[in-house]
Amino acid sequence: MTGPYASVIVPTYRRDETLVETVRQLLAQEVDDAFEVIIVDQTPEGSPTTAAFIAAQGDDRVRIVTTTPPNLPRARNVGTREARGEIVLFIDDDVQLPKGWLAAHLANFADACVHAVAGRITDVRWPGSKGDVVGEFSWYGRDRTNLDYDKRARIRVGGGGNLSVRKRSYNAIGGFDERFGAGIALREESDFYLRLHARFGGVIFDPEARLVHLAVGSGGCRVPRYAQRPEVYRNETLFFLKNFRRVGLPIFLGITWMKYAVVYPWRNGELTPRLLVEGTSAMARGTAAGIALTREKTDAS
Description:
globular; 9 helices; nine-stranded mixed β-sheet; 2 domains; Spore Coat Polysaccharide Biosynthesis Protein SpsA, Chain A; alpha/beta; single chain
């Protein structure tokens, strides 16, 4: 083949210093197949430290494309459109990569029946496997993931920060749904996995394709005070109505509200009557916005 076999796509937002180390580790990957690295920079002023590092390397495998405003699923779609590889891989901008990470992913695609691979993610905030349920959905629509699982499996849902997909399969399902990325990135990965599963029969979970997620506090798409963000409930509503029977929405939203507005603040010692009121208001506004979004048609609908 004339171009790279694989394209590693790294969406980034305000993590210039951290991104440099991620790129350094990507270029050190030990793999037989040619690959490229596409950084999708969503930072309005750019990432000058990373750009200078790439220029100093003189390595034409790496290039930067830009897109604003920040929208994680859109950034992944932009990167995929730019990709020349047959296999596209997605990672976060704040990870540690063993030198065999890329080779482990690509080895799975020797089997023509494999359309996507989810790699193991060890998060520094809560490392370790969480039992034997690796990637399923509960009957009421909540995902049950175990990203640090240590056994190979076939899953219905997993993480988006260590994922490889055949580009033709990615395009066949319309990529990531960009409606999940406005203001906050939430549930776009679960939705993507479900559409992959419906079209191609699931995703391989490969613990050998492992990386460490550093969960850097600044930058990225994480936002504080989830309970008061209507966008959280907008995305949850959109996800449920796209993928499950509408009759279960009240139960799903009730459990979601309990999780974000009660359990999380209680664990952090922040639960107050005012927070409950704000969370309830956010849920009402977000649910209405989510229902409205379901009427829009997209390639990823």
